[in-house]
Design a protein that fits this description.
With about 210 residues, the protein is of the alpha+beta class. The protein contains seven helices and six strands, in the order ααββααββββααα. The protein has a four-stranded antiparallel sheet. Strand 3 and strand 4 form a beta hairpin. The termini are far apart.
């Protein structure tokens, strides 16, 4: 393809993106004996797709990526007992992590494995990660959908904090529920009314959903 012709094709693509998009889709998908039949089968058309197909936007900026990679390395190098595990779902997308929290010993959550999704914003660490339990948890500060009410993930967040520290805070929250800032009314009511009955319900849910 000559340079003038390439320039003209680019101009045509930009001026008529809807028409070109539909035409190229038909060209690439319609075959007769495995050969394109609607448009001339010359490869430059495939190359020219990038004229109207934008580059994928990275999940977050380079500063966030550098910070997250450093946190991951620090976590992997640490040999301290933590009571949880965490890491990225896919190494090609460092904005999505998963974590598993072990139910704290001596608590009604003991013996349970609580899984959660972690989504890291593109402007991390200036905004907190979003954490959501995927395991059902009977707890006044955790909704039935797994959303958490905890200061460290909202107005008390600081860039000095880390993903690891936030997960530690969630584990601590399991042992120290706060019925005044509830997201599950039933759990808050039961905690205020009868702690033993609350603990029994926690054990029941832990055995049913987190074993």
């Amino acid at each position: 393809m000559s340079d003038p012709y390439a320039t003209e094709v680019k101009r045509f693509f930009k001026e008529r993106p809807i028409f070109v998009r539909a035409s190229l889709m038909l060209f690439l998908l319609s075959t007769e004996e495995d050969q394109p039949v609607l448009l001339p089968p010359f490869d430059p058309l495939r190359v020219m797709l990038n004229v109207w197909t934008p580059e994928p936007v990275p999940p977050f900026g380079p500063g966030a990526l550098k910070r997250v990679m450093r946190e991951l390395k620090d976590y992997q190098r640490s040999e301290e007992p933590r009571g949880f595990s965490m890491g990225p779902v896919d190494e090609d997308d460092m904005s999505r992590w998963k974590a598993t929290i072990l139910g704290p010993e001596g608590s009604p959550y003991e013996g349970g494995l609580f899984h959660l999704n972690i989504t890291i914003p593109k402007d991390y660490p200036f905004k907190p990660p979003r954490m959501q339990f995927t395991t059902k948890v009977f707890h006044p500060n955790i909704s039935e959908c797994g959303y958490v009410s905890i200061n460290i993930l909202s107005y008390d967040w600081s860039p000095a904090l880390t993903i690891s520290k936030a997960v530690v805070a969630l584990r601590y929250l399991l042992e120290n529920p706060d019925p005044s800032d509830y997201m599950m009314p039933e759990a808050a009511r039961l905690l205020r009314k009868d702690r033993k009955e609350y603990d029994d319900m926690v054990k029941l849910w832990t055995k049913k959903y987190a074993s």
